[in-house]
């Protein structure tokens, strides 16, 4: 069962412990078995967020993916499909500072898709909520989070179609 299907939407939004981490790939990389680990995509990525691990491309969420498509264009193998949908999205864990009573809206402010909203609550700071349908998995919110509370989970691709 995909990790994203093993937790409920409510768990995602309430900052519960995240499911097993999912190894992210660049957008549209749907046939990793065809990846030879040549590194052409790594060199082509202007954001420098791709790497090779165990002879396969992986995405390092240290900066935002701009969905420029340079990785797909550089790849000489049939790794990339026509769609540029990420195979992942993000979720917020219980390490979010708001659960410790500390006000923070950094992720909301960095999201280019307005996929994160802050839900008011009585007796504490607003809580961040991710709209899984709006989240592209770009990763722009991950590095800026001051407490490392944002992780990557597998997207249920049936939901993305
Ligand atoms: S789409 Fe562009 S920014 Fe994103 S991983 Fe590929 S080359 Fe890098
Ligand atoms: S940036 Fe991190 S600590 Fe701040 S609200 Fe978002 S998840 Fe919580
Ligand atoms: S991964 Fe990108 S689209 Fe998704 S919540 Fe973070 S910044 Fe927004």
From TrEMBL:
Keywords: 4Fe-4S, Iron, Iron-sulfur, Metal-binding, Repeat. SUPFAM superfamilies: 4Fe-4S ferredoxins (SSF54862). One of its GO terms (molecular function) is 4 iron, 4 sulfur cluster binding. InterPro entries: 4Fe4S_Fe-S-bd (IPR017896), 4Fe4S_Fe_S_CS (IPR017900), Fe-S_Ferredoxin (IPR050572), NapF (IPR004496). Pfam families: Fer4_7 (PF12838). The keyword NAD does not apply. CDD domains: NapF_like. The keyword Metal-binding applies. Residues 26-55, 56-85, 102-121, 126-155 form the 4Fe-4S ferredoxin-type domain. This is 4Fe-4S dicluster domain-containing protein. The lineage of its organism: Bacteria, Pseudomonadati, Pseudomonadota, Alphaproteobacteria, Rhodobacterales.
């Amino acid at each position: 069962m995909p990790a994203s299907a093993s937790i409920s939407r409510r768990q995602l939004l309430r900052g519960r412990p995240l499911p097993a981490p999912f190894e992210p790939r660049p957008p549209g990389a749907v046939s990793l078995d065809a990846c030879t680990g040549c590194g052409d995509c790594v060199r082509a990525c202007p954001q420098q967020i791709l790497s090779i691990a165990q002879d396969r491309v992986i995405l390092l969420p240290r900066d935002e993916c701009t969905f420029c498509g340079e990785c797909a264009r550089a790849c000489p193998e049939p790794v990339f499909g026509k769609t540029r949908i990420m195979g992942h999205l993000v979720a917020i864990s219980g390490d979010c500072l708001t659960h410790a009573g500390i006000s923070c809206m950094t992720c909301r402010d960095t999201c280019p898709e307005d996929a994160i909203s802050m839900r008011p609550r009585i007796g504490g700071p607003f809580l961040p909520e991710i709209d899984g349908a709006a989240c592209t998995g770009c990763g722009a919110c991950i590095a800026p989070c001051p407490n490392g509370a944002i992780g990557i989970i597998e997207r249920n691709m049936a939901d993305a179609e």
